[in-house]
Amino acid sequence: MSTTQDTDARLDLAPEPEAPKGEQKKGFWKKLKRGLFMTHTEIIERMEAALDGRAVLDGETLEYLEESLISSDLGVDTAVELVERVKAQVKPTDQKDVERVRRILATEVADLMSKAPQPEPLTAQPAVILVVGVNGVGKTTSIAKLGKFFLNRGEKVLLAAGDTFRAAAIEQIALWGERLGVDVVRQKAGGDPAAVVFDSLQAARARGVQRVIVDTAGRLHTKDHLMAELGKIRRVIDRETPDWQLRTLLVLDATTGQNAVIQAREFSKVVPLDGVILTKLDGTAKGGVAVAVARDLQLPVVFLGVGEGADDLIAFDPQEFAAALLGP
Ligand SMILES: Nc1nc2c(ncn2[C@@H]2O[C@H](COP(=O)(O)OP(=O)(O)OP(=O)(O)O)[C@@H](O)[C@H]2O)c(=O)[nH]1
Ligand SMILES: [Mg+2]
Questions:
Q1: Which tens digits make up the pLDDT trace of 126-170?
Q2: Cβ of 162 below 6 Å from ligand 1
């Protein structure tokens, strides 16, 4: 377990101002452990069941181990690679030792996940965070959490109500803005999202905002007009704020398991993505999907959602994640 690891996301540089670092880290660690509890319990139980009755770590035992990892939503390729790595470190005559296997797996999971190319850290320069994903995965909630995350670091935040499809979506983000005490730029329902983004960038410039977070309507990669709309939003951002940093984050719902991997694959074909926010880990045993996303798609997981509140966001750290997933 490495709670000494830095918990700042790759998106961020400066430490959060308020709580002392040590205490704050302890808080995040607890939250992460709680968020991954169901996944952790499930994966360990499956592993133990797979190794139950086996005497040594021979080929057959490792096959059982592989199956247990596949059924824990790590994905076939990831499970195969992990077991290959275990195989390289044990002899077939070695006594079965669940603790040892867990330790090896934790190290290898951390290694696999840290190999996905990380987004450039944000500098003090203003940044636009464009948040995309399919319906209901937790985009708007994650935007509120991100807003809080930046606020905690003393940065000025503005939210753009770019989901103009439904009046309720605009109300939802406006309500979050009120709760957080940050400005929300909105137009009426049915308006052009790119126009909302345009207004938001103008307002952000005028008000000295450092972090503009853009909500978007849920969409499938197959919906051409919705994808065109995202393209238009990106062009507005490029044109209006070419000197600002842009990060496009895909939100994935962990409860959908392997479906999340498919969504990530399809989205990454049509929109350049910088990273993933994996939500709803608190309500599922399918959190292993984070490993598959990072490894199979080489797409870094940058934040984890572990609840419905504004503070239920954890900056991703591969070592801490692996420790929470497979640690004691
Ligand atoms: N338990 C839990 N619930 C979450 C999390 N993130 C979001 N939710 C809930 O998931 C539901 C959908 O969240 P939204 O943020 O509205 O999702 P969305 O992607 O913006 O949805 P659309 O705009 O309709 O596409 C809400 O009830 C949220 O409270 C999380 O990390 N954990
Ligand atoms: Mg929404």
A1: 999 999 999 999 999 999 999 999 999 999 999 999 999 989 999
A2: no
